[in-house]
Amino acid sequence: MSQPALADRVAIVTGASRGIGEQCARVLAEAGAHIVLAARSVADLDKLAGDLGGNATAVACDLTSPDSARALVAAARDQFGRVDVLVNNAGISHTRPVQEFDLEAFQDVVDINLKAVLVLTASTAEVMMATATGGSIINISTVAAGTGTPYMSVYGATKAAVESFTRSAACELGPLGIRVNAVAPGLIETDMWARGRTIPGLVDRLEAAVALRRWGTPGDIADVVGFLASDASRYVTGQTIVVDGGMANMMELLPRRD
């Protein structure tokens, strides 16, 4: 019997307590990886860690702090001696019109969505270089990185920067056997859309703009992450894979404020 695709590999998943991050952890663990689960509170990760059994370790991590991000990678290295996969999934968004922009209000969006990705990627690459095992770094972006999205200018800007960083990091780290890719989800049933899905008629209107005529699930994204983490994608790097069900003209359907 062949070994699981990620047998004995070590994967860090940020924002792992729910949604896309949780499902990524489950998919990678099912493929045989040891998972280092990261979120602000270990308590939020306890149930997931229990479900994954001995294949999971929970680490409290405040990604607004570069030191905390570095400590996360160090914890994985110290426990397992290596890191093979990094899933930069943690992300937040605030909705506000451009004319109401306030740097302080959006600083945590920049810190978590962009700065943490830079710090975690650099720290993980350093471990991968030291062990000379190569690896796969996967950044979770969004379709909003490449389109105009009302009231989400800072969120979209940080994710667009992540996609640019993904391409450049792939060029630098490729000779070392480290692949760097991004996944850009479309309409996914996560907490980020919880409020929007309560707006009368919005779900149906947006669904009508998706070729597959349904919202995506965290599992739809996690399966692509699993592919990028494994050797099945061994010749793929520097790419942003859009996973949106064939969504078309979504931004034109978003409700406008009066």
Helix content: 40-55%
The name of the CATH topology is: Rossmann fold
CATH architecture: 3-Layer(aba) Sandwich
Could you report the average pLDDT, rounded to the nearest whole number? 89
* Principal-axes shape call: globular
The helix-and-strand class reads alpha/beta
Let me know the number of strands. Answer: 7
Element layout with pairings:
Layout: E1 10-14, H1 19-30, E2 34-39, H2 42-52, E3 56-60, H3 66-80, E4 85-88, H4 103-131, E5 135-140, H5 153-173, E6 178-185, H6 202-207, H7 218-229, E7 240-243, H8 250-253
Parallel strand pairs: 1-2, 1-4, 2-3, 4-5, 5-6, 6-7
Question: Could you give a short description of this structure?
Answer:
The chain has 258 residues and is α/β, with parallel strands linked by helices. 43% of the residues lie in helices and 15% in strands. The chain has helices spanning 19-30, 42-52, 66-80, 103-131, 153-173, 202-207, 218-229, 250-253; strands at residues 10-14, 34-39, 56-60, 85-88, 135-140, 178-185, 240-243.
Characteristics:
globular; Rossmann fold; 258 residues; alpha/beta
What can you tell me about this protein's structure?
With 258 residues, this protein is of the alpha/beta class. It has a single domain, classed as NAD(P)-binding Rossmann-like Domain (Rossmann fold), CATH 3.40.50.720. Helix content is 43%, strand content 15%. The chain has 8 helices and 7 strands, in the order βαβαβαβαβαβααβα. The chain has helices at residues 19-30, 42-52, 66-80, 103-131, 153-173, 202-207, 218-229, 250-253; strands at 10-14, 34-39, 56-60, 85-88, 135-140, 178-185, 240-243. A 7-stranded parallel beta sheet has the order 3-2-1-4-5-6-7, with helices on both faces. α2 links the parallel β2 (34-39) and β3 (56-60). α1 packs across α7, α3 packs parallel to α4 and α4 runs parallel beside α5. It is globular and about 50 Å long. It starts with 9 loop residues before the first strand and ends in a 5-residue tail after the last helix. The model has no long low-confidence stretch (mean pLDDT 89).
